[in-house]
Amino acid sequence: MKGIKIEPEIDLQIDLNVSSYIPDEYIQDANQKIEIYQNIALCKNEQDIQNVIDEIIDRFGNMPKELENLIAIARIKYLAKQLKVTKIANSKIESNKTVNTKTTSAKTAVVFTFEPNKFELDLNELVKKYGNKIKFSAGIKPMITLQVESQSERQILNDVTEFLKF
Question: Which residue of 16, 88, 96, 164 has the fewest CB atoms within a 10 Å radius of its CB?
Answer without folding.
Answer: 96
